[in-house]
Design brief:
five-stranded mixed β-barrel, binds aspartyl-adenosine-5'-monophosphate, alpha+beta, about 25% helix, about 450 residues, 11 helices
Length: about 450
């Protein structure tokens, strides 16, 4: 058998694993994050995949001689001895006494911004976004998206453990699911098609197959305004559940998902949480309030006169966030029974009062992060509702196959990944929590 000559280095270890290699010779690879020359020795900070590791270069440790080409952002392979010590708080910490440094690649130019401070000081958001491929190398910036990974991972893990099947729905669609004007049109070989506003129509179809499904994927909204909470492309974390008794089943599942996510962040994303000073919410039970009762509170408690009695404006959502914190010590609040007029065609009306729906939004620290609810499952009822809304059921024939050939009572939700990340980390602008944002003014990088 032929042997493959690979370059795998078998004593390569992560910083997390240094504790098991105290006093041993190990190898790390990464970027030179910073070089600090002292008298008689230098600190070389190496940025690895998740950590920054302090390495010490002193002629007494090694036969290696400093190469003047070594500079910040050079890719290197460093071999050295793990040495432990205690930090100011008495915790163990480890550094690497450099034996050898191999240069793997050198940058062509110096960076246009300083990224090796704890955070990107004094740099405007627009510049950070323009330079995303490199501004994200800053430890704090990259921690944001590590946390975001944790959120999506928690969503996936919890649902997978609860009988959900992960699915992928098409993003080029024959119709917009959410209605409204914020749908991107596309010329598809001479035919008009649309970019998916959500996986709504497909996740419902797939309930007919797997009963419980979820998807984490990009969706597209042609938002015509430049706001701090709207993107033109965002990551929608959706799930859909069949055989529910009521839409409260969906809310309970979401509460379970969020508890799991927060716990995962606290345990496996501890360093990032600390670096970002993120306040991870404690979730026991999430309070629930009906839409009209919420309006009452806004009018009577907050003395605010809403201009729209069918929806909330951002300041009303903030008021409800404050109310949830004060009355229930909760960072979250479910608002249920939204008016029918403001909910999409697939939403089930409340049989007790059809002006309202069996639907909900979840607010997190005063911002809507989720919409969800029970769907119409009866064929005739869905066709009638479409007609009432001036839609042509013929156009939705493939969607209606679900209903025509038997759909269980079902419902689900969509959770905006960037919005959740934004408020978890206390940001004012959703772009701070978006790797490569697309908005009315930005399609690069
Ligand atoms: P909805 O349209 O309310 O519902 O969207 C669900 C969640 O997605 C996020 N979101 C956005 N995030 C960033 N930029 C935007 N432009 C944007 N628009 C929405 C929000 C919002 O709560 N199909 C339904 C869900 C369902 O019923 O299952 C839907 O998409 O966090």
């Amino acid at each position: 058998m032929e042997k493959i000559n690979g370059t795998l280095n078998y004593n390569r270890v992560s910083y997390e694993d240094f504790k098991n290699h105290d006093g041993e010779i190990v190898n790390i690879v990464g970027y030179i994050h910073r070089i600090r020359e002292m008298t008689g020795f230098s600190f070389v900070i190496i940025r690895t995949e998740r950590d920054t590791i302090q390495c010490v270069y002193a002629p007494e440790f090694s036969t290696y001689r400093w190469d003047e080409k070594l500079c910040e952002e050079a890719s290197v392979s460093v071999t050295g001895k793990v040495a432990s010590s205690k930090d100011a708080k008495g915790n163990d910490r480890y550094e690497l006494q450099i034996h050898d440094i191999k240069i793997l690649s050198l940058p062509a130019e110096n960076l246009p911004i300083v990224i090796n401070k704890k955070q990107l000081d004094g740099i405007q958001l627009n510049t950070i976004l323009d330079l995303r491929p490199i501004s994200m190398r800053n430890p704090r910036e990259r921690a944001i998206f590590k946390i975001q990974e944790g959120i999506a991972r928690g969503f996936r893990e919890y649902l997978s453990q609860n009988g959900f099947t992960e699915v992928r729905s098409p993003k080029i669609n024959f119709a917009g699911a959410e209605g409204g004007t914020n749908v991107f049109k596309l010329d598809y070989f001479g035919k008009e098609v649309y970019l998916a506003q959500s996986p709504q129509l497909y996740k419902q179809a797939l309930v007919g197959v797997y009963q419980r499904v979820f998807e984490i994927a990009p969706v597209f909204r042609a938002e015509h305004h430049d706001t701090s909470r709207h993107l033109n492309e965002y990551t929608s974390m959706d799930f859909e559940m069949g055989f529910i008794e009521s839409f409260y089943d969906i809310m309970n599942m979401e509460t379970g998902v969020l508890k799991y996510i927060m716990n995962l962040l606290k345990t496996e994303y501890k360093n990032e949480v600390e670096l970002l000073h993120a306040e991870i919410p404690e979730i026991t039970e999430i309070p629930v309030i009906k839409f009209m009762d919420a309006k009452d509170i806004i009018i009577n408690k907050f003395k605010y006169q809403p201009t729209d009695m069918k929806d909330f404006d951002p300041s009303e959502e903030e008021m409800l966030g404050k109310y949830a914190k004060k009355e229930f010590n909760s960072d979250f609040i479910f608002v249920t029974h939204y008016p029918s007029k403001k909910r999409p065609f697939y939403t089930m009306d409340d049989p007790e009062n059809p002006e309202y729906t069996l639907s909900f939004d979840l607010l997190f620290r005063g911002l809507e992060i989720t919409s969800g609810g029970q769907r119409v499952h009866d064929y005739n009822e869905q066709v009638a509702k479409m007609k009432k809304l001036g839609m042509d059921p013929e156009q939705f024939a493939t969607y209606l196959m679900l209903h025509k050939y038997g759909a269980p009572p079902h419902g689900g939700l969509g959770l905006g990944l960037e919005r959740l990340t934004m408020h978890l980390l206390g940001f004012k602008n959703v772009r701070e929590a978006t790797m490569f944002p697309r908005d009315i003014n930005r399609v690069t990088p």
